[in-house]
Amino acid sequence: MATIDSAPASAGRLRVAVPSVAERVAQELRRQLAEGALIPGARLTESTIAEDLGVSRNTVREAFAELASERLVVRHPNRGVFVASLGAEDIHDVYTVRRFIEVSAMRGGGSPEDVAAVRAAVEEGKRAAAAGDDEAGGTANQHFHGAIVAMARSPRLNTIMAQVLAEMRLFFHKATADALFYQRYLPDNEAICEALEAGEPDRAADLLLAYLDRSEDNLAAVHGE
To answer: Does the keyword tRNA-binding apply (predicted)?
Structure first.
């Protein structure tokens, strides 16, 4: 795991723009959540994370506070900090956010480089499916949706989406008891990407919207069992 170093001192205006070390630790933990490395209910230890990332325990504590405000972790008095276990009631709210962010980003289209990043995520998913690696397939699916939002070229939207992707992976942990869970979405990802590559962002957005509607229904059914 990469060490997170402090940013060098610079002019006042630049210091405002550079994320603090605690913010970057929070970013790293969001990434681990989004990629399935941290599972719901897992205990997070300040000392272990501080050692892994090369930061102080106070810094990790600040990062935990940021993630707690996003409901990605919970602190239990006298027990510690744990990865959140989100419930069925959270699903619709998260998908509402996804529809606004992802579909709008898709309708705006993207540069050839942006579209290539979406295609790369699709191909990553295909390789994972061929290898029978559903966890890698889940990560590829996260990369696909992250690449869609990245087309908007908005750091703020990317930050919001990082939180959303972390929440989504927490939901998906229960759904992936079905070993083919992520493979079912590969044809959708392919069709969306092909429409985007054909220069039809509105059609791609319509396909994405239908995809998100089905995905919400499927996930709600799993968590409603």
So the answer is: no
